[in-house]
Design goal:
Blueprint: E1 8-19, E2 22-27, E3 33-38, E4 41-46, E5 55-67, E6 73-84, E7 89-99, H1 102-108, E8 117-129, H2 136-139, E9 143-151, E10 157-167
Antiparallel strand pairs: 1-4, 1-10, 2-3, 3-5, 4-5, 5-6, 6-7, 7-8, 8-9, 9-10
């Protein structure tokens, strides 16, 4: 079979959320450990060439992060709201998977020697919604992204996701 008519990706949005307080919920019946992380600030901005163009500030957010019982993966469930420079609200979120290793776990454990990790440990499916007609196309599109975690000198943490629009193939074969 020829490798044709697969979807492609178009770079679209860079999302940066700053991690706030952690609220451990505990071990669920499934065996997963749930921790609620506040993500109260950050940015959501389109890349050059993507429409509709916008720049927004995160005004609310949280990640209901579930660590698998085997501690090899964690499940992202982030929900947030950003407001554009024009005052338009965008509801956004993503669900994804984080591959856990020593470097990633040192960040989650807030160890003093933790360092930033590159892209490649986290992937997800992103959604966007807004009541403003300018952004209605976002709600009717599919987005995929990957992420990294940045540890700053003051020990604060930013999660950055680079998000692409999934462009469907149009052929018959």
């Amino acid at each position: 079979m020829a490798l044709i008519n697969f979807p492609s990706l178009k770079p679209a949005i860079v999302c940066k959320v700053n991690v706030g307080a952690a609220h451990p919920v505990g071990t669920r019946n499934s065996g997963a450990t749930l921790i609620h992380f506040e993500t109260p600030t950050g940015t959501l901005e389109t890349v050059e060439g993507f429409e509709p163009k916008f720049s927004a500030k995160v005004v609310f957010g949280a990640d209901w992060l579930a660590f698998d019982p085997d501690k090899k993966h964690a499940r992202i469930n982030l929900k947030a709201v950003a407001v554009t420079e024009e005052g338009i609200s965008i509801d956004f979120g993503y669900q994804g998977i984080i591959s856990l290793n020593d470097a990633v776990m040192s960040i989650f454990n807030m160890e003093p020697d933790s360092v930033s990790v590159p892209f490649g440990f986290s992937t997800g499916v992103h959604t966007f919604q807004s009541g403003h007609p300018t952004f209605s196309g976002l709600e009717n599109s599919t987005f995929a992204g990957n992420g990294r975690m940045l540890v700053h000198e003051d020990r604060s943490i930013t999660v950055e996701s680079r998000i692409s629009l999934v462009v469907p193939a149009t052929g018959m074969d």
